[in-house]
Design a protein that fits this description.
Layout (H helix, E strand, L loop, with lengths): L2 H16 L3 H7 L2 H6 L3 H17 L3 H16 L6 H14 L12 H14 L4 H14 L7 H14 L3 H17 L6 H13 L3 H10 L11 H15 L3 H7 L3 H4 L6 H11 L9 H17 L2 H17 L3 H14 L9 H13 L13 H7 L7 H8 L7 H13 L3 H14 L8 H13 L3 H8 L4 H14 L3 H13 L4 H13 L3 H9 L7 H13 L3 H11 L16 E7 L5 E8 L4 E4 L14 E5 L10 H6 L3 E9 L4 E8 L3 H13 L4 E3 L6 E3 L6 E11 L5 H12 L6 E2 L1 H7 L3 H10 L3
Parallel strand pairs: 1-5
Antiparallel strand pairs: 1-2, 2-3, 3-4, 4-5, 6-9, 6-10, 7-9, 8-9
Helix pairs in contact: 1-2, 4-5, 5-6, 5-7, 6-7, 7-8, 7-9, 8-9, 9-10, 9-11, 10-11, 11-12, 11-13, 12-13, 13-14, 13-16, 16-18, 17-18, 18-19, 18-20, 19-20, 22-23, 23-24, 23-25, 24-25, 25-27, 26-27, 27-28, 27-29, 28-29, 29-30, 30-31, 31-32, 35-36
Protein name: Tetratricopeptide repeat protein
Organism: Nonomuraea montanisoli
InterPro entries: TPR-like_helical_dom_sf
């Protein structure tokens, strides 16, 4: 998307703002940043909301824009595959509508569908991708906004189809066409050309191509550094330039946030694992196993198989024979989901042969003594991957061994394997109804993690009533089925299941906004509660305005409350309350803590927000940032807490002001006037904000912000006070929206806005 579409976006934002849709206008411009910066929780909320409003307002280009960026956020860095194909197909159909197809960005819907197909199974969908992309590329103007994205995907499809020489030639011709149109190739096109060259066995040329693209502007500038590093490391590792490859390779904590890079990163690590600079550890194996599961859930079938095979090679290299065999099984089963599995059966067979030829590390002691050795092992330095192999001979026969072995398997990412072993011992060969509660809990966790819900329900049916209902409550909680979780947990409590059942009652009731019920469930066993449980009870009781229970909870944790009855309204210092912003992000609002879990917002908020100064908010007392270690910083630290709900609105109304900053004395008088009346006022501009002198044109320091007034104060009173408080200023202050509301001197305020460029 180039300047044409961005100019349209800017015009649309202005039109929405003038029509009163300020929140929508604010959110609109932030969608690309949300997609590129990985702010996916915001994107997943805001993009559908904008699309829905656009449909209501009959703005099809805006609807396409919102749906496109949401989809790019999914199929781009998140690398969603089969789960996104249906939405991509629907977006393409929408883009072909008569009232949408003239949008400069409409052809990008083809690119989004090609990405979804590539994420699901690049080689398997290669022919379809070429068939769909070909006409779109031919129809696209090289000077237009979507050309580079389309040709990049065409080169990618040629590479996945095995037509690597064509891919290289096509990329070169595309760069020439772009140059003739006065445009530069994107970094993504250069990087895709490098991938084709690497696939062609021309690693040196691939490195040169990637280097040549280094200064190209990226379509996704945020992801460029780590993507370039991963591809560069893979090429250098292929060339055997180990030290340079290690230097280029992004750290795991960087690449871990970018699923699109996981396969290439793992392949590079596999090539470098034999060097002293890269350590092939069980932690690496556990992370890659999590990535495999991610692609399984996202329909990234090719990536899932590829990662399983590479992870299997890494497991063999560190003598993790049992894991290599399971990964071979996983890769083989995943082949059935691919449209093209050419060459994969041979790789699976090679992995199995390598595992069979590998000797497992020697165990620390006899089989019968390994549980004791396991329990004595240093929990920080012990290798759970090796212990999973060492404990396996008695697992499924001896209960103590089985507990440790299966839970270790679950920890390493193989809950289904652990569940099979545990199930055989407890259910098939044992009496699960008389099993220890801990064993039932361990097996439940494995079955939940393995997503074997039917099997878990089958086990629950064999249990005594209290354990049966608790087991079902655990399952429902894991699947966020709050009503079913509440009902099952209440049955478990009634049957005497214990504190975990009550915790589930509390958590589920809170999700269902039945806070009184959740608080009561914990209050009944107040003496048994941990501090965490007690705080949860306090939050729920506060939301239900059950102040007696709040006081009992506060007494348990040693928090003094001065009053003995009624609502708690005390001054307990300043905190920052974190609330949602209209663009889907977060907003920190300075507030006065009034109780264990309540605070009154102290700062005025812009019109259109769901909260304002004077509102009483329930917050979660879990600190969101650690207290600074430095004593001076700690003294000035204002703790942040997440808002739970607005308990009682204060009814305040905000009014915007804007203009040239007055002299210091005038500003001090102004703020004192606001404070005397108890009108919260806050300046949102910073020292960089300037306005224009109406005659000389010079830049003047500016100031803008909001003042909030309590219920009972009329807009006329606010206008009169502002007029009186600022009449002696060298430069006038404007409050245009307020002037329009009271219909007083509207033309004067409009003139100030225009003359000072506000």
């Amino acid at each position: 998307m180039d300047v044409d579409i961005w100019a349209w976006v800017g015009d649309t934002q202005q039109q929405l703002s003038e029509a009163g849709n300020v929140g929508l206008a604010m959110a609109l411009g932030d969608l690309p940043a949300q997609a590129y910066e990985g702010r996916y929780p915001q994107l997943d909320v805001m993009a559908p909301a904008i699309a829905q409003q656009a449909e209501t307002l009959e703005l099809p280009w805006l609807e396409f824009y919102a749906r496109y960026w949401h989809l790019i956020g999914r199929v781009g860095d998140r690398a969603q595959g089969a789960v996104a194909i249906g939405d991509a197909e629907q977006l393409l159909a929408f883009a072909q509508r008569e009232d949408v197809r003239d949008c400069p960005a409409a052809p990008a819907a083809v690119e989004a569908l090609a990405l979804a197909w590539a994420n699901a199974d690049g080689p398997g969908y290669a022919a379809l991708r070429l068939e769909k992309l070909g006409p779109a590329v031919e129809a696209a103007d090289p000077a237009g906004p979507v050309y580079t994205g389309l040709v990049t995907q065409y080169v990618s499809a040629l590479t996945d189809a095995g037509r690597v020489d064509e891919a290289v030639a096509y990329a070169e011709s595309a760069v020439e066409r772009l140059g003739a149109a006065g445009r530069q190739a994107s970094w993504e096109l250069g990087a895709e050309s490098a991938r084709a060259l690497l696939a062609a066995g021309r690693a040196e040329d691939a490195l040169s191509a990637l280097q040549a693209a280094a200064d190209f502007q990226a379509d996704d500038p945020v992801a460029k550094p780590q993507r370039d590093g991963v591809r560069r490391a893979l090429i250098l590792a292929t060339l055997g330039r180990v030290a340079e490859a290690v230097d280029a390779l992004p750290d795991l904590d960087v690449v871990g946030e970018h699923p699109r890079s996981w396969v290439e990163w793992t392949r590079a690590v596999n090539l470098l694992a034999g060097s002293s600079q890269i350590t092939n550890t069980w932690q690496l194996g556990r992370v890659v196993r999590q990535w495999i599961d991610y692609f399984g859930m996202m329909g990234g079938y090719r990536a899932r198989v590829e990662l399983a095979l590479v992870a299997g090679d890494l497991a063999v290299a560190r003598q993790g024979v049992w894991q290599a065999r399971l990964l071979a099984d996983l890769a083989e089963s995943g082949m059935g989901e691919l449209r093209d599995s050419t060459g994969l059966a041979e790789r699976v067979a090679a992995l199995r042969a390598a595992a069979d030829a590998t000797t497992e590390p020697a165990a620390p002691g006899p089989v019968a003594e390994r549980v004791a050795y396991f329990d004595a092992a240093d929990g920080h330095n012990a290798d759970p991957e090796r212990w999973a192999g060492w404990l396996s001979p008695l697992s499924g026969q001896d209960l103590e061994t089985t507990r440790r072995h299966t839970t270790t398997l679950g920890y390493l990412g193989y809950p289904a394997t652990g569940a099979d072993i545990y199930w055989k011992l407890l259910v098939d060969e044992g009496d699960v109804a008389s099993a220890d509660a801990d064993d039932i809990a361990y097996l439940t966790t494995l079955l939940v993690d393995a997503r074997q819900d039917e099997r878990l329900e089958q086990m629950a049916a064999l249990l005594p009533h209290d354990q049966q209902q608790l087991t079902l409550a655990r399952l429902h909680m894991a699947r966020e089925r709050w009503q079913q979780a509440l009902e099952a947990a209440e049955h478990a409590v009634a049957a005497g299941a214990g504190i975990e059942a009550r915790r589930i009652v509390g958590a589920a009731a809170q999700q269902l906004d039945d806070n009184a019920k959740g608080a009561r469930a914990l209050l009944d066993i107040l003496d048994e509660l941990t501090e965490e449980d007690t705080w949860r009870m306090i939050v729920m009781a506060t939301s239900a305005e059950d102040w007696d229970t709040v006081r009992k909870g506060a007494a348990k944790i040693g928090m003094p409350i001065k009053s003995t009855s009624g609502p708690i309204e005390e001054e307990m210092g300043l905190i920052r309350v974190i609330l949602p912003a209209p663009d889907g992000g977060q907003r920190q609002v300075l507030s006065i803590r009034t109780g264990p879990a309540t605070a009154r917002l102290a700062l005025p908020q812009p019109r259109g927000m769901d909260y304002n100064a004077g509102d009483l908010v329930v917050f979660d007392p879990q600190l969101l940032e650690p207290v600074p270690e430095d004593p001076q910083e700690a003294q000035n630290f204002v703790p942040p807490f997440g808002a739970v709900r607005i308990l009682r609105p204060g009814g305040y109304t905000s009014y915007f002001f804007d203009g040239a900053a007055p002299a210091e004395d005038d500003w001090a008088d102004f703020t004192e006037t606001m404070a005397e009346r108890g009108w919260p006022m806050w300046v949102y501009s910073d020292e960089n904000y300037t306005v224009t002198h109406p005659t000389s044109g010079e830049a003047l320091p500016g100031v803008f912000g909001w003042v909030a007034v309590p219920p009972g104060v009329s807009a006329v009173e606010v206008d009169a006070l502002l007029d009186d408080a600022t009449e002696r200023w060298s430069h006038p202050l404007a409050w245009l929206d307020l002037a329009r509301e009271v219909d007083v001197e509207v033309e004067r305020h409009e003139r100030i806005v225009k003359e000072y460029g506000l």
